[in-house]
Amino acid sequence: MERTIVLASHHRLADGLKDTLEFISGGSQDVVAMAAYLDNQPVEKQVDTLMAALPADRDVIVLTDMTAGSVNQKFFRYRTRPHTHIISGMNLPLALGVTMEPTDQYISDSRIDALIQEAKNAIVNVNEIQVEADDDDE
Question: What Gene Ontology cellular-component terms does the record carry (predicted)?
Answer without folding.
Answer: membrane
